[in-house]
Amino acid sequence: MINLPKIALGAWAWGNDGVFGGTLTDKELRPIFDKSMEYGLNLWDTAYAYGMGTSEKLLAGFLKGLPRESYLISDKFTPQCADASSPTAMKDMIEMQLGLMGLDRFDIYWIHNVWEAPKWTEELAKYFEGKDNVPLIGVSNHNLAEIKQANDILKAHGLKLSAVQNHYSLINRSSEDSGILDYCRKNDIYFFAYMVLEQGALSGKYDTAHPMPKGSAKAETYNPVLDKLEILNAELKRLADKYNVGAAQIPVAWAISKGTLPIIGVTKTAHVDDAAKAASVKLSADEVKALEELADSLKLNVVRMWEKEMK
Q: 85 has which bridge partners?
């Protein structure tokens, strides 16, 4: 089992695919990468689907020349990006991605979503069966039944499911309510929590007077409910002041306290500083409970178009 840091850094926004708004260049991202590595935050989460290789290529440029053991790469097979008619679609996708990134292996590799997932999990298992340097194998955006099915498929090939990656935050705890977190704990499976900050909605940066910029997908989701989010963000700010950190660090500390490994999108060096500090915050059980009760009382539904309810 590889040694994972408490937090993974997400390069979704690096794909410049319109989800986050704006465009990021390698010149802007280089200081972010360098600072992350200085902190020992060396687990990078990307996917070909993030800008059709844009995120992977940007990240690859920063990895060039570094010792392979100094960083960890988490990448994904996105079924919709593959040639489903090809009998070698899995092999072609993996080897294309390795070529884009200049790597000979990934540390974690995922089935990105559930579109024909059993078929693709089977193909993934066949590809890695009997190979050396098999990465941790994970599934993303799967419900509990689909996770169990994936694990069964992998076991039939002498492999195991090692990771699950789902949307999980204070205002979307469906992976907990559905029993997924318990299943992962009982079966030695890492649970990666993405969108812990809900694309900045739980960072304290936005409110009704300062909405998210129009034109991005996240603005469509969160701007209509900023009045409710203000209530939760006020409590996050209160706890942040208590622990002498920024408001954005409290949801991350909450996710760590739940036994998950949060993926934090980083587009500014300040995000890296926040991630490093969040790993040191230890919320009490009472604080965790109070945060969850407040979040639940807001009755928000932030399931995105590519997702589904886990229940």
A: none
End-to-end CA distance of the chain: give it in Å, rounded.
30
306 within a domain of the structure (yes/no): no
Distance CA 182, CA 185 (A): 5
Helix axes 249-257, 285-297, angle to 10 degrees: 110
Spatial separation of the C-alpha atoms in residues 124 and 91, rounded to whole Å: 8
- The pTM of the full predicted model, rounded to 2 decimals, is 0.93
The pLDDT of residue 139 is 98
Tens-place pLDDT, residues 239-261: 999 999 999 999 999 999 999 99
- pLDDT band of residue 168 (cuts 50, 70, 90) is very high
Q: What is the CATH number of the domain that holds 12?
A: 3.20.20.100
Beta strands in 56-206 (DSSP E): 72-77, 108-111, 136-140, 163-167, 190-194
Instruction: Classify residue 15 by its DSSP letter.
Output: G
DSSP string over 242-296: HHTS-TTHHHHHHHHHTT-EEEEE-SSHHHHHHHHHHTT----HHHHHHHHHHHH
C-alpha to C-alpha distance for 20 and 12, rounded to whole angstroms: 9
Please check whether residue 127 lies inside any domain of the structure.
yes
Give residue 183's domain range: 8-297
Q: Name the residue among 8, 45, 14 with its Cα closest to residue 29.
A: 14
Structure tokens at 305: 């178009």
Of 77, 132, 68, the C-alpha closest to 109 is 77
List, for residues 192-215, the tens digit of each pLDDT value: 999 999 999 999 999 999 999 888
User: Measured between alpha carbons, how far is residue 155 from residues 122, 135, 158, 207 in Å?
Assistant: 10, 15, 5, 47
Structurally, the chain folds into a number of domains equal to 1
Partners of 8 in beta bridges: 263
Q: Give the CA distances from residue 308 to residues 130, 140, 186, 201, 305, in Å, rounded to whole numbers and listed in that order.
A: 34, 12, 24, 20, 8
**Coil, helix or strand at residue 28:** helix
